[in-house]
Design goal:
With 252 residues, the chain is of the alpha/beta class. It has one domain: Spore Coat Polysaccharide Biosynthesis Protein SpsA, Chain A (Alpha-Beta Complex). The chain has 8 helices and 9 strands. Strands 1, 2, 3, 4, 5, 6, 7, 8 and 9 form a 9-stranded mixed sheet that branches. Strand 6 and strand 7 form a beta hairpin. The two termini are 30 Å apart.
Length: 252
Amino acid sequence: MKISIITVCYNSAETITDTITSVASQQYNDKEHIIVDGASRDSTMDIVKSADSISRYISEPDKGIYDGMNKGLRLATGDVIGLLNADDFYADDTVLSQVANVFKDPNIKACFANLVYVDQHDTSRVVRYWKSRPYQQGLFKSGWMPAHPTFFVKKEVYAQYGLFDLSYKIAADFELLFRLIEQKNIPTAYIDNVLVNMRTGGTTNKNLKNIWAQNKEIIHTLKAAYPDFSIAKFIFGKLFNRTWQFIQKPKE
């Protein structure tokens, strides 16, 4: 079973080496790493071109990160696809082996796991722990979603149900996960381990304006899906989940 990893980047010279190295060092060998660059102006592409582990790369202007992800999804040749941002890196060298083990069950169409946010400058320091849980119908409208960088899905699912919806500017990852897991009810598995380290300061959470814009798009999606959707319950659930992520600690 071949696993494709897609990394979308733009001016990511400071961090992309960690991303590339974490994929290259995986014990699981049947993999490809695709880089989709949005015409970076720094040395990002020099780093990419010098990495022997990169299977394929493109560098050209795009319409944003989700457009770049869609380009990568179309290029992917693996049976299973994961997306790893250029600020992120895998927690250890067994991540893809853990994922491949899940997909030994032919009924499973996707899996997800836990994630930790780490300090931008000291990546050994955990700032926030995003512990997920096995999916149950209705969780999304209570403010839950799996961590997107830990989400691996069979390529056939994208072929059947579509890619990222570019009408969403900042919450297309939520819409995609909601569509596949909640609306299409694809069979999923939860890996109760940290698979990804994510640096703080990403696009979605870097300021209050982006957080507000993201939540407006999410609420719009949920209101359209659920006539009885409660904004108050959603906000309370999300605030509780996010607060707890700063309190709980990952297992050693």
